[in-house]
Amino acid sequence: MIPLKAIKAPLTVAAIALSLAAIDRAEAAEGSIYVAQSVDPATLDPMQNIAAQSLNVFQNVFEQLTRIGTDGSLEPLLAESWDVNDDATVWTFKLNTGSTFHNGEPVTADDIIYTYETIINNPGAPAAGYLKAVDKVEKIDDTTIRFTLNQPYAIFGRQVSLIFIVPKKAYEEMGPEAFSTKPIGSGPFKVEEWVKDDHITLTANEDYWKGAPKVAEVQFIPMPSEPARAAALASGEIDIVPLLPPPLVDSLSSQSGIKIDKVESNRVVFAGYVPDDGPLGNEKIRKAIDYSIDRKAITERLLRGLGNPIGQIAPPVTFGYDPSVEPTPYDPEKAKALLAEAGYDGTPIKYMFPTNRWAFATQSAQAIAGYMQQAGINVEMEPMDYAAYLPMWINNTLEGMYMFSLGISILDADLILGLEYESEKSHGYWFSDELDALAKEQRATADQEKRQAAISKIWQISNEKALFSPIYVEVQAYGVRDCVTAWEPRADERLNFAEAAATCEH
């Protein structure tokens, strides 16, 4: 940094500020970060793609009205503030006046409305499901937008964090096809180049309205093979490899120049029960299964620390998590006593699970089955490929006991309640008027304390009746080369490089 006393020519305060900002940008934009992902995006149009690996690119190129902070809190982004009425049906967002797109055009209310209406008017758009509650979007003035919803929706402020804003004028002039390969956003990085199935190169947006990134270049490289990604990290070809499984964590952690960064994730692995299938309609048998599982041993020995026992489907980083709802303790004797009280006659329990949904899915399922058998429960294991398993979960056609994993991108338990506990839209199997009323109650108020109370009551009912058996929250491991000097993984698995720093060279 050049000291102020070295500047001899008379300058205005504004000129000095601009000069120093330019120097900061010049000093900051250095190094590169190469990231390996399992797949390449299908398109770079955020209105047509919501795949996880694609969101890692979008997170750095585009922006939303709001964003989820690293601690799970809701933060302003393109919107500097917002208001919501008492029943959470009218949301008014006030835009900041300093944000600009990569082409220099300001971000306005027209761009916000264009993005939302394009998605809403195309029911087949992947992101359309996020906006089903929107009845009307209105421009109040150039920096104010009002959303009127068709139902109370307390998490709408979080829901808009999933919608990336595109520039209306540029999108219409370029057309969807051209925009999908060289998009324009307002984020900290610009798309420099996309060579399909080879790499996406992002370069620092030196005019970024929140301050230029410190990293000059970020490149996303598709590598389907986990061992290939690990080898590329070890050789220095790659600087960050997300979501490492336990064996690769062990092999990479001992190599010089590599660190393993871990973060408790937004994803919970749990067992569910189909009540119509024989013994599982009996609450005592479900509780026996719950007590038979040694969660501590699974997370510490099998997963090698890449998991923490949990007592609810909501992970700690999620709003709605209640620390007083603890994991069910391992008590095989109590499990056996409950089976005796239930009159369990040895009828086998079908146990369905996907083999390739999360790290060590098969091994953890086998461990759970082993604990059940030790308690005296006969188990028929039915492993399935996730591609076949997911439609059965969606259509509620699973049988017996089943395993699943939910990751909540907006870090709010409301999504979990809808998916597993609410009769109108659930992929679960346990419904009641009480659960429905509690789910609707927390959704219909902007009062967070009231929301938490209703959600906590759902967890308590769920555990009292053993509707589910939460097993563990995943801890995600990232292999990172030492040349990445500033960057932290996030619980929601998003890769954000706005504040990263690196000395890596490629």
UniProtKB/TrEMBL annotation:
One GO molecular function term of this record is:
peptide transmembrane transporter activity
The Gene Ontology CC terms held by the record are: ATP-binding cassette (ABC) transporter complex; outer membrane-bounded periplasmic space
**Keyword Signal listed:** yes
Q: Which residues form the signal peptide?
A: 1-28
One short Pfam family name for this protein?
Answer: SBP_bac_5
Nuclease among keywords? no
Q: Which GO BP annotation is one of this protein's?
A: peptide transport
Going by the UniProt record, its keywords in alphabetical order are: Signal, Transport
Principal cellular location given in the protein's record? periplasm
Ranges for domain Solute-binding protein family come to 74-415
- Give compartment(s): Periplasm
Q: Which family does it belong to?
A: Belongs to the bacterial solute-binding protein 5 family.
| Name the UniProt record assigns to this protein | Solute-binding protein family 5 domain-containing protein
Q: Which organism is it from?
A: Acuticoccus sediminis
